[in-house]
């Protein structure tokens, strides 16, 4: 496993991202809720540049079987990545794909050391 210093902590405010190339791979570094996350810029749908998409929230639906009503709630504002090709959604803090249950963006370990942000591949 190789370590790469990709940014300083001060370089990214909460909600920011930085696209980088490491060993020929496109990687996106996110700062979200004070934590750093690194994902390969590759959508699970058809390989689009998922990490370059807009950041929004998403809708959550609950169905009440007794009342036969659906309750829609807007949630996760600022934590959902939308792939620019066809709109698949990803939860930035976890990498979980919200459009296909049980799948995640490929992630990479991130460590903060002496003010530097280090990604391991
Ligand atoms: S390639 Fe990302 S949604 Fe289709």
UniProtKB/TrEMBL annotation:
Q: Name one Pfam family in it.
A: Rieske
Name by which UniProt lists this protein: Rieske (2Fe-2S) protein
Q: Which residues form the Rieske domain?
A: 4-119
State the signal peptide span: none
- The keyword Cell membrane is assigned to this record: no
Q: Does the keyword Phosphoprotein apply?
A: no
Q: Which UniProt keywords apply?
A: 2Fe-2S, Iron, Iron-sulfur, Metal-binding
Query: What Gene3D superfamilies would the database entry show?
Result: Rieske [2Fe-2S] iron-sulphur domain
What is the top-level taxon of the source organism? Answer: Archaea
- InterPro entries reported for this sequence: Rieske_2Fe-2S (IPR017941), Rieske_2Fe-2S_sf (IPR036922)
Query: A single Gene Ontology molecular function, please?
Result: 2 iron, 2 sulfur cluster binding
């Amino acid at each position: 496993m190789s370590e790469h210093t990709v940014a300083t902590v001060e370089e990214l405010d909460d909600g920011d991202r930085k696209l980088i190339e490491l060993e020929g791979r496109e990687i996106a570094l996110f700062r979200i809720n004070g934590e750093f996350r690194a994902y390969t810029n590759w959508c699970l749908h058809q390989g689009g540049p998922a990490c370059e998409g807009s950041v929004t929230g998403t809708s959550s639906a609950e169905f009440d079987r007794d009342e036969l009503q659906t309750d829609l709630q807007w949630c996760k504002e600022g934590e959902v990545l939308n792939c620019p090709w066809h709109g698949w959604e990803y939860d930035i803090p976890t990498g979980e794909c919200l459009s296909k249950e049980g799948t995640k963006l490929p992630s990479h370990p991130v460590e903060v050391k002496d003010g530097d942000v280090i990604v391991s591949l």
